Amino acid sequence: MAANQTIFVKLLVFLVYGFLWCSCQPAEAAIKKYQFDIQVANVSRLCHAKPMVTVNGRFPGPTIYAREGDRIQINVTNHAQYNMSIHWHGLKQYRNGWADGPAYITQCPIKTGNSYVYDFNVTGQRGTLWWHAHILWLRATVYGAIVILPSQGTPFPFPQPDREEVIVLGEWWNADVEQVENQGNALGIPPNMSDAHTINGKPGPLFPCSEKYTFAMEVEKGKTYLLRIVNAALNDELFFTIANHTLTVVEIDAVYTKPFSTEAILIAPGQTTNVLVRANQVPGRYFMAARPFMDAPVPVDNKTATAIFQYKGIPETVLPKLPNLPAPNDTEFALSYDKKLRSLNSQKYPANVPLKVDRNLFYTIGLGINACPTCINGTRFSASLNNISFVMPKTALLQAHYFNIKGVYTTDFPDKPPTPFNYTGAPLTANLRTTQGTRLSKIAFNSTVELVIQDTNLLTVESHPFHLHGYNFFVVGTGIGNFDPKKDPAKYNLIDPPERNTVGVPTGGWTAIRFRADNPGVWFFHCHLELHTGWGLKTAFVVEDGPGSDHNVLPPPKDLPQC
């Protein structure tokens, strides 16, 4: 009997200690698997039906859900007539550029009838990001949201919402988008603007034939909602608001911010913003609305997309209340809004801003006109960084880097423009000896980089959202006019600057960013206005391997597409 009691006690102790040990261990990361079928589907909007490229026949495509620490595997099978690649916008892909997605930068595209598995870990990131096609103009219809929840048991650093909703802003063309792009290129002029903006793929009731193409979100009075907002538009910065309701910004580009309240947000193509909104108004129906911001003499699709913020129990016969959006050219609102964006910089979520800079870069944005004998006006628009209009290679840059393939690119991209001038002075029409080439900038591993991006008045000033793949960066400074290297750095915010992956360079101004080059590989850097990217407003960084194998680019997967 005593022996049995001893065995029982030992077993009980073993079970108790085993339970305590298990409860102290972090939850095992899950593997989230998705199947993306790139396929042509018939879609109708604005009284026009057309076949267009989609993922799984959906527009927008499916939302990817994961938790911080998860592994994601997405098998992309291309059934469409175009080559395809998918970019997971904002995911850092540490050492794993093979999963980043931009065609001819980190991979050759997935050809018709072929598949490729994007396999990556979500490490040290949580929040709202998004995915989109990264070849031609196919991201006009091939896009969707990524929702990364905090690791199990980790709360938000803001009041827990009662519910969440994904809001993806986009554009709609009645015509085939690739034909629109090709026509513009052939004529040497900007392609036709979109026919509507959309909210979750729907333009809303201000457009014809849109009664059933209106997104509605049902809410209950007194409850708080987290809106995960993505700007997936090709070419337009957008204001977003909800009539009679206040938005509280709590996150940008999957990085927590110091919360602040605003009547509207400004969100550039490629950016994401999370806001809290409390349903605290008289129960009714209220318009959500999105409309472009443009403070330069550049034509845009200025139509307003709408959706409905609808209180429970209110009949659909009640007319929604209209919102007050900022004026389309409200520069003051845009600059004021950006100044309010600051990193949370808490003990758990610090802002590790590089205080010492190893490498200073100064890039000028230039728009130009080149000769084109076959174009309608005998000329074609071009765009450049530091007077270099980027030429896309035929072999993926990361493959050329990893396998040491010669002749694909050079690493002589200049740290500053060859010819200094009054960048934002009187409009200039000269190209300033713009050249073409596949020229990259080589960056030492773990070095700290400061990059000042300067808008210019070559043809016209304009706001440009720039996206850096493989990294977040800190937006330490911004201003209007020419950057002054002697005076402006003294005004930098090095305490709690916003941390982003995509930043808007203001019209006729400059933006300074800092980052630590701790992610080896080849990383694309480009304007996220698809129009300008196609004209050559892009380049890439080659970040060298670090010491030891754990700081080197990972070997490529066996199913990597070939050119």
UniProtKB/TrEMBL annotation:
Metal-binding is among the record's keywords: yes
Q: Where in the cell is it found?
A: Secreted, Extracellular space, Apoplast
Q: Where is the Plastocyanin-like domain?
A: 38-151, 165-313, 412-545
Top-rank EC class of the record's enzyme = oxidoreductase
Q: Which Pfam families match?
A: Cu-oxidase, Cu-oxidase_2, Cu-oxidase_3
For this protein, the record's CDD domains field holds: CuRO_1_LCC_plant (cd13849), CuRO_2_LCC_plant (cd13875), CuRO_3_LCC_plant (cd13897)
Q: By its UniProt entry, which InterPro entries does this protein fall under?
A: Cu-oxidase-like_N, Cu-oxidase_2nd, Cu-oxidase_C, Cu-oxidase_fam, Cu_oxidase_CS, Cu_oxidase_Cu_BS, Cupredoxin, CuRO_1_LCC
The keyword Hydrolase is annotated on this UniProt entry: no
**So what EC number does this one have?**
1.10.3.2
Which keywords does UniProt give here? Apoplast, Copper, Glycoprotein, Lignin degradation, Metal-binding, Oxidoreductase, Repeat, Secreted, Signal
Co-factor binding comment: Binds 4 Cu cations per monomer.
Q: Which cofactor does it need?
A: Cu cation
**Where in the sequence is the signal peptide annotated?**
1-29
Reaction(s) the record says it catalyses: 4 hydroquinone + O2 = 4 benzosemiquinone + 2 H2O
Q: Which PANTHER family match?
A: LACCASE-2, MULTI-COPPER OXIDASE
Q: What does this protein do?
A: Lignin degradation and detoxification of lignin-derived products.
Task: Give the family from UniProt.
Answer: Belongs to the multicopper oxidase family.
Name of the featured protein: Laccase
- Lineage, uppermost ranks: Eukaryota, Viridiplantae, Streptophyta, Embryophyta, Tracheophyta
